[in-house]
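Data's thin. Show one?
=====
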Amino acid sequence: MRTSWAVAILFVCACSSPTTGSGSSAIDAGTKVDTSLTAGDAKDTVGVQTLDAVLDTTDDDAAATDTPDVPDVQSLDIPGFFDDTTVVCGTTGQIIGVACAPKAGISVAFASVSLQVDSPCLTSGTSYQATTTADAKGAYSFNGVPPGTGTVTVVKGSFQTAIPVNVVGGQKVDLTLPSSDRCFKSSAVNIAVVKGNADQIETLLDGLGFTHTDFATSSSATSAGAKFLGDLTAMNGYDVIFIDCGSNIDNMMAGAAKATITSNIQAFVNAGHSLYASDWAWQIVQAAFPAAVDYFGVDASLTKSASKSTTAGPRQGPGPTTTQKKAGAPPFTMNGDIVDANLAAAVGKASTTIYEDLSEWVVMAAANTGTTVEVQAAVNDGKGNDWGVVPLVVRFGAGKGHVVYTSFHNIAVKDAGGPVADIQAILTYLVFTL
């Protein structure tokens, strides 16, 4: 019984100052406490009526008397809590970490991070809660955290992970070293890729460590990609759909299939899912969300033209032809201004070179109301075609979901003909906003 009473007294002392029954004075060393349950009797000087011993400062539970142990009043020895580690309620801890992709070493900028800790030093039924935002390098921290067990939750776009933590007063919980139990999980988000024949966003996803299901396209309107986009039930099995650029989009968006795919894309995004499309997949974006972006030329037309002045559309931007590229012609370059401040911080600069490895990329004229420009550039091929400053990356919301569209080829992450680190950084940032 003496041991149980000692634990009870220590718990009270750990989280609040011991007081008298009337709240007027602390227990004095050597004060005798009676065993009677009669409140207010002559011997009941401290309002503690159930301890039939005199407390001492030895903490050995062997002495004949006990008195309040002032140096230890802030400690709780709780069996099973932190492997019997003493919980110091008057001292807080710290948590530091880095939001990261499944592949170690790739950080995730501006993730939302929340913390919840259950602590014996808080009022029963309450928990410590805090939120913060990771910086451009994915770093985050929580200071002044009470000791206890809890969870750090990291969220960015469709991606989320939960990390269990044990906080000890006066110590730091370090979550900065990337590991499988701290970073986003490779299969935590269901990703589908409709492959093209001119872009390979799947290569970037592989580099980030994500698993994905690929649907091939071909000159046939019955390709796996066409069938997938024609089946809303199958599409709803995924959180994010990426659609590569490729001439095979022409075949998918022909005849009756166009109406079905258009309706399915609208329903998929409006329900809260995300869509990424690049370059010639503009047809799908334009058909499903015609008010989001204005393209040069007649948006509804699929007729290709390399001239800004013709009436057919859409306009095709400058760059080497396939034959010229095979002969070693350099890509067309543009000075891309990174308009989005967070994207600029993640890349580490406000402008970068954008490479166009082919001449068949769709030029946007303007972002319409509700559409945000992420990257833009002045486009002039020096041959009489001056498009002015045009968007290269845009995003917009639709229903509960949203869409990201890039007019430049994301194949550039592997063979743009120039440095591609910035382009990889831009695309990585975009992936984690989906």
User: Anything to note?
Assistant: The radius of gyration is 32 Å.
